[in-house]
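Risk mitigation, structural track. In case the binding assays with zinc ion fail to produce interpretable data, a predicted complex structure has been prepared as a fallback.
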Amino acid sequence: MFRTLDALVLREVRFRESDRILTVLTADSGKLTLSAHGALSKKSRIVAATQQLTFSELTLFEKNGRYSVREGSVKESFQGLRQDLERFALASYFAECLERFAGEDQPEPELMQLGLNCIFALSEGLGSCGKIKTAFETRLAGIEGYAPLTEGCAVCGRPDLREPRFLPEEGRLVCRACRQSGRALPLTEDGVSVLRYLLEAPAKRILAFRLPEDELRLLEKVSEEWLLRCADRRLPTLEYYKSIRGFTEGSGPV
Ligand SMILES: [Zn+2]
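Fallback model:
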């Protein structure tokens, strides 16, 4: 049986001489594993359409629950990523996150939209890497049902927290004076507003916020640590991205 769908190639693994095994994300069927025979042969018409971080229309042949790619055409190749190692590394991290959270054979329209929007923004330079990363991580946690509790201080209840702190073990905010024990990551009041915005804004508007660079760094630490906790596993692409970006763990602002 043949089937045509739009797919974002999250990962490709070389297999035998000229084949690829692909992990792709689709809106209607979530995550799928596909084989692409001959996808590395120079004569193949599906070479470009089956590259990692390409958005393509693929025609699949299904037999016994296994899919193979028969035809493919590129809808968006995100060329801007191919010329910028840092942005490509960050997009690869997004792809690993999408692979981690997407369900198999179940609709994932929100994840698809988030992934395409953020990878497009990276490719087109529609924001700094830190800004796009913070938006992606926060929103992804929200879509997956892990939105941190941001209404107010978890102890005193104030909606306008005084010197806010994020408790990564609990996914909650407290005022500095209300903090009792455990790890706490500092945020600014505007950072808390952006956190709320990212969880509630329409999907197409998640990058429509402004925050000074030093405050964004604090928020990025929160979004990253929280998403890692939700993912509950190491994400090697994040470590690679950070090595590219020149970060060393824990050296950010305190
Ligand atoms: Zn408080």
